[in-house]
Specification:
- It is a single chain.
- By secondary structure, the protein is an alpha+beta fold.
- It has 2 domains: about 350 residues, Outer membrane efflux proteins (OEP); about 70 residues, no CATH class.
- It has 10 helices and 4 strands.
- Strands 1-2-3-4 form a 4-stranded antiparallel sheet, with no helix packed on it.
- Helix 1 packs parallel to helix 9.
- It is elongated, with a radius of gyration of 40 Å.
């Protein structure tokens, strides 16, 4: 006698749980962990969140860089080198134009030139880049929240998968125990010469027991894989001790809020939508910053220039400037304007294209996120209704199995009834656990899709 096809599918579906294991050793977790404890440990050790933190730090550095352009910029140049000697008599009473060059007449000079530029008005080059960097930081913070939600979603999947495997294992052990008792009773009746049992019934019981043993091994394997996946997600080593709670797969009998409630939460709180909103503001600011390159930069500038050379007389005349021996300082308001032929326009067009691309992404997200929420919502409603239906079915199947076993014990019923009752019971019980698991996963998916925990529904 074979177990039902649905019973097989339950195990095969569960065994597909991802079991990638991270290498390395980590501190041992507490003795017994609930799903919330596992989530906290996973969030604490997740490398994705470490990457997200560095993305935020990078965005902050860009903001600091953009902000720093508001402050003065100082440039200093110093020189040391040879210079020809010179005296006042070379220009008095007239400038001598026939002084020959001689290496022996060279001396050394040193100079220092300092310029300071204080931006006064840049037509948005600084302010728009600061605005873009600020919104860029908000994008990276939202992306970190999205990654955290994905981690929570995975922990729920692995944790509830582990509970499902344990429920399946317990179900198979229960069926095995019934089969062992039935075989002992059948052997006893056969030895007594009862006409309600024959050798074929023993063969059927043994065959059924073999199938049950096969599924028991698969359940153990599924439990091990789910535990390994949970360890990996929590950043634990392959052999690190991990004890999760012994609770059963159950759901509270509470009403599920309306679909519109979840869609409204998703539209207001979904990190991806916040990323797009902040990204559009950043891209808009970058467009304006690129357009600002059409205009000049107005600045306040200062200059200090000093040079000294031994062997050169100092000349104090505003019409004469000695590059090797002088002291000059001044301040002025200036404009710096870089003109090009098409480069600025191309940059503006490129930034505008990025902005328009993000608009299309927003339209796609606004259309598909409610669809995703509806899918998860219907999954949860279906799973909850299935829990109710399969619970009644497996309870009635269990009563059938108990009656069939009792009749067989008293020699009043055939072994065939036991096979049929156990097949129905194991199938309906497995479907019941699968429905519970589907409900838990649908709730976790809705948690991800709406960025709002559903634990209140389970209390």
């Amino acid at each position: 006698m074979k177990l039902s096809k649905n019973f097989c599918i339950v195990f095969l579906l569960f065994l597909s749980v991802n079991s990638n294991v991270l290498a390395g050793e980590s501190p041992a977790p507490p003795a017994v962990l609930g799903v919330d404890d596992c989530i906290r440990m996973a969030l604490k050790t997740a490398p994705e969140l470490g990457e997200a933190d560095q993305d935020i730090a990078l965005a902050k550095s860009k903001l600091d860089e953009a902000s720093s352009y508001r402050f003065p910029q100082l440039s200093v140049t110093t020189l040391v080198g040879p210079a020809p000697t010179a005296s006042r008599q070379d220009i008095m009473p007239g400038i001598a134009a026939d002084i020959p060059f001689s290496i022996n007449s060279l001396t050394w000079f040193t100079s220092a030139d300092a310029t300071i530029i204080q931006p006064l008005y840049t037509f948005g080059k600084i302010s728009e880049n600061m605005k873009a960097a600020t919104h860029g930081m908000a994008v990276d913070r939202s992306r970190k929240q999205q990654r955290a939600n994905e981690i929570v979603q995975k922990v729920h999947e692995y944790y509830n998968g582990l509970l499902l495997a344990r429920e399946m294992k317990e179900l198979v052990l229960e069926v095995e125990e019934i089969l062992i008792r039935a075989r002992e009773k059948a052997k006893k009746l056969l030895d007594q010469g009862s006409d309600t049992v024959d050798e074929m019934d023993l063969y059927k019981l043994d065959a059924f027991s073999g199938v049950a043993s096969k599924y028991l091994e698969e359940a153990k394997k599924g439990e091990s894989l789910a535990l390994s996946a949970l360890r990996a997600r929590m950043g634990l080593g392959v052999d690190a001790p991990l004890e999760v709670g012994a609770e059963r797969l159950t759901i509270a009998d509470t009403d599920i809020p309306s679909l519109d409630t979840f869609i409204d939460h998703a539209r207001r709180r979904r990190p991806e939508l916040l990323q797009i909103a902040e990204g559009l503001k950043a891209r808009s600011a970058l467009v304006e910053a690129a357009k600002a390159n059409y205009y000049p930069d107005i600045f306040l500038g200062g200059l200090v220039s000093w040079a000294y050379a031994d062997g050169r007389d100092s000349v104090q005349n505003p019409y004469l400037s000695d590059p090797f021996n002088h002291m000059v300082a001044g301040v002025a308001i200036g404009a710096r304007w870089k003109l090009d032929f098409g480069i600025t326009g191309s940059k503006v067009a490129g930034e505008r294209a990025q902005y328009n691309r993000l608009l299309s992404t927003r339209d796609y997200a606004e259309a598909n996120i409610p669809l995703q929420v509806k899918m998860y919502y219907l999954d949860m409603v279906e799973a909850k209704n299935s829990v109710t239906a399969t619970r009644g079915a497996y309870l009635n199947a269990k009563k059938w199995a108990v009656t069939a076993i009792a009749n067989f014990d008293f020699g009043m019923g055939p072994a065939k009834e036991i096979f049929e009752a156990l097949q129905a019971y194991s199938s309906m019980r497995a479907d019941y656990f699968k429905s519970l698991y589907n409900y838990k996963i649908a709730a976790a998916n809705l948690d991800y899709a709406t960025n709002e925990p559903l634990r209140a529904l389970e209390k």
